[in-house]
Amino acid sequence: MFGKKRNQAKVNEPVDSKPQGNILGNQIETIRDPIGRVKASPNYRGGIALLAKKVQPLETDKTKYEEAEEICPSKAIKIIETDGKKPNQVTLDRGKCILCGRCQEAAPDLFKVDSLFMPSTKKRQDLVESFYSEPALIENKSYEKIGRELKDKVSKILGRSLAVRELDAGSCNGCEVEITALNNPVYDIERFGIHFVASPRHADVLLITGPASRNMEVALKRTYEATPDPKIVVAVGACGCSGGIFGDTYATTGGIDKVVPVDVYIPGCPPRPEAILYGLLLAVDRIRPEVKEQDSEVRKI
What we know:
The protein is α/β, with parallel strands linked by helices and 301 residues long. It folds into two domains: 47-130, Alpha-Beta Plaits, CATH 3.30.70; 143-300, Rossmann fold, CATH 3.40.50.12280. Helices cover 29% and strands 15% of the residues. The chain has helices at residues 2-12, 63-71, 102-106, 143-157, 174-181, 217-226, 237-242, 273-285, 290-300; strands spanning 47-50, 77-81, 87-93, 111-114, 128-130, 162-168, 194-196, 205-209, 232-236, 264-266. Strands 7-6-8-9-10 form a five-stranded parallel beta sheet, sandwiched between helices. A three-stranded antiparallel beta sheet has the order 2-3-5, with helices on one face. β8 (205-209), α6 (217-226) and β9 form a beta-alpha-beta unit. The radius of gyration is 22 Å and the shape is globular. The protein starts with a helix and ends with a helix.
């Protein structure tokens, strides 16, 4: 009787012609690209960039630039002086930036925080931006498109699923929240042939967060050594890239690459699920093509 009333109520309910992806019992299936139509809020802090083309040499009003350097909590901004009198270059380390937005408030003509996520890099120095460096550009791809590209690459290189082991090396759990979101019904990363494993012995990729605290240093090294070759290490978040807000102190080592080699750096505090997926896309490029042949031989045995 209860079931009949429940079904009757659903029949009488108006049908939503524009489903929003709510799958909690309202008979609406998960849409193919759950975030294709859902853009980040304009006020969302996803990335930061230098507006070098719009700024004249730092001769007119350098006070606000020095203020931006002073108030940066993670020391991501540096003013480099060349002649001993006035600065002529500003560098921005996106690997250290925690996206607090203070620099934009102090010097809005030089710094811009927007909702697009910062692209991952294979080299730590590529995260440092200056007036004379080319700005990092990333195509505004949807989560679905990035996922399909990653699935195709994994299938071509490995011929099987990509196994990921996540390791917390002393983070605040902000990055863990975003990584966990990859497995929810909205992002559903397993549809792209990527799954998380419980042991590093089964992993192709180590996804590591946190500034590599002293208490986790030994555990991080042991996890790295337990992962079979060829292993890929991905540093997630500002803490993983450089130590972030924790920096390099008596309690931290100052980033994952101070303990184990890192192949891909994913900046952000924390990086969005799209940014993490994009980082995995770069990580797959690090796997040698002969891995597929080796894996095939193992399965034959």
